[in-house]
Amino acid sequence: MLEIEGLTRKFGDTIALDAVSLRIAPGEFVGVIGRSGAGKSTLLRLINRLVEPSAGRIVFDGADVTAKRGGALRDWRRQAAMIFQQFALVDQLSVLENVLVGRLALTPRWRTWTLQFKAEDRALAIEALDRLDMAQHALKRADELSGGQQQRVAIARALVQEPRLILADEPVASLDPRSTAAVMGALKRINAEDGLPVLCNLHHIDLARDYCTRIIGVRRGQLVFDGPVEALDDAAIRSIYDQ
Amino acid sequence: MMLPSVRSMTSSAAQPSGDAVAMVEARRAELRAAKRRQSLLLLVVLAVAVLVAGHLGEVSWQKFVDGLPRFGRYIMRTMPQLSLESFGADMSRWMWNFRVWVGLLVDTVLIAFVATTLGVAGAFALCFAASDNLAPNSIVYHAARRTLEVLRTVPELVFALLFVFAFGLGAMAGVLAIALHTMGVLGKLFSEINETVSDRALEGVVAAGAARGQVIRYGVVPRVLPGFISYTLLRFEINVRSASVIGFVGAGGIGQELMFVINQFIYRDISAILLLLIITVALVDILSEWLRHRIIGGELQR
């Protein structure tokens, strides 16, 4: 159970996120919608602690995430796996090595200097790639792949982190329709089969309707809609998009 | 804990996942073996090259060991006698020519400053023609490249000797010598930064109908400027060191004085001048580091 209370983030004078409170239960597939700059990305980055909150608290299964430091913080980041719009792969590393980045927080640091991992870790990474139909590309350089393929590598990286929560920040905004279906389908399968909660920023309301069970609407940093996907009617959409 | 999230996902590929692991691992082993052979070969070649070069260059371990005590004795001889009771008097005796030396050091920094400025201007003018993605044609490209090559191949001291011969003793010769060398080195570095700007990033400007110069001004310069500034400040530090040496051939700065006291075996003065030189270089380092952070840091924040 992820609990967020009064989460606020200011950048100078602008308030990117304004006292947002919400709870996310295991197994939910939550779509976050809103205009560009409404604070959707900031919300996800705050949860992973890539951005520090100005005020408010994040609690996961009773533990205060906002208080974590050092090793505990890195372990939380591993559990709250991020997926980015621009994939955030290291172009010069192989696909397999990119997936193994997801094992870094679970491997003693001295072992990782040479880019060598244990055979079990490699097997785990290859299986994760195989589940996303990417095993045949494992030894290519990451930048040889298409956008949709790169995003599936990023999902494999998230999977081997042994996450307890998936945070996807516009995962399909740079992809064509077919790749979009492949990536969203993969997220949906992970959500359905493992009961992992997914928090996913989306631009397209149609995608939100197709894949999400619950919708959160953010407008100018404030939570203006929170309900099951069926409750998202035209009036709700107008209020979220400020029309 | 084995990973349920990975294993429980149904695959659209019908084969069991063990096959994928075996397949990737086999291919990986092949690639690694090939890579290992390659690195081993490289290592052997490098070791042999170093040994041969050392032998031919008469770099001798024995000579080094024999000479080490002499080096130590020389250093000891340059050390001043300083005692706690009469520290002030000892210091002023050691630094007896302080005003003259500081004046010469200021000259040295000024020579480096003027030379760096001129060198950067020259490098900026040539670097776009010397980048293979921006040069108008291969004749201009090769002409620019070769010019820069010649400028940085001729050592500063040789340039300085030529200019002392032409323009007489003094700072003018030093400025020109360092400026030309700087132009050669920075021109090459700048052009390499230019080459990292991808064609794709420029297409937006080209597709709007911009001329070559406009493409460079709007598409390239904004991207490469932080890199240029960084290399320029680094070069300024290096040039302060160079400017303290070119005085050896009469081209101005502290070098002339340093050469004189070394040749005349005025040991105390050697250590005094070197100490002041080290302090000067450290100050320049600190200043340029501060500048770099201000400029580049501001660039990153945008």
UniProtKB/TrEMBL annotation, chain A:
GO terms for cellular component: membrane. SUPFAM superfamilies: P-loop containing nucleoside triphosphate hydrolases. Keywords: ATP-binding, Cell membrane, Membrane, Nucleotide-binding, Translocase, Transport. It holds the Pfam family ABC_tran. InterPro entries: AAA+_ATPase, ABC_transporter-like_ATP-bd, ABC_transporter-like_CS, ABC_transpr_PhnC, MetN_ABC_transporter-like, P-loop_NTPase. It comes from the Bacteria. Gene3D superfamilies: P-loop containing nucleotide triphosphate hydrolases. GO terms for molecular function: ABC-type phosphonate transporter activity; ATP binding; ATP hydrolysis activity. The keyword Secreted does not apply. The keyword Transmembrane helix does not apply. Residues 2-240 form the ABC transporter domain. NCBIfam families: ABC_phnC. This is Phosphonate ABC transporter ATP-binding protein. It comes from Rhabdonatronobacter sediminivivens.
